[in-house]
TrEMBL record:
Protein name: TetR family transcriptional regulator
Keyword DNA-binding assigned: yes
Pfam families reported for this sequence: TetR_C_31, TetR_N
Gene3D superfamilies, per the entry: Tetracycline Repressor, domain 2
Origin organism lineage: Bacteria, Bacillati, Actinomycetota, Actinomycetes, Kitasatosporales
Amino acid sequence: MASNPQRRAALVDAGVEVLAREGARGLTFRAVDAEAGVPVGTASNYFTGRDDLLRQIDTRLHERLAPDPEVMAELLKSPRDRSLITAFMHDLMARAQRDRTGYLGLLEMRLEATRRPELRASYTKTVRADFEYGMEFHRAAGLPGGDETVTILYVAMLGLILEHLTLPGVLDGVLPGVTVPNDLVERIVHTIVPSI
């Protein structure tokens, strides 16, 4: 197994691109090699198989899409109220828009997990850990609302991200005077998060 960390990272990122563009069925070592611009057979030297590549893509996607610690630290200087949660949700939406390929890769991972029980177990564990971290962060930060607020906010934002990244015109004009996604983020937080 080859051990060049930079080459491995480039191959994993190429895998994200292929996954987002072609879906899981198009994720082959040959396609990853072509996307990375490396000789045919390179990816097979870095991953034990397709499942190994998918696991590493999962890890990489969570790194790519994670909040910037400096942005979070700056936001946490604000009062612990609904406006702070709104700022967090705007940051989440901005990250989704900035790395559209990464979020589409996450969606493809979800679809592939529905077909492969071994991936479903691993992916469910990863996503659940992220979700539980979000609930713990919310509690520790002293933000308004509790676990129910975080859960409903999670589902609403996931739906907004899904619609906006895959069928962006679906929500346009549904609510007169409400822009998508910015005003809709505001409406979601205002509807779900209690004021204090």
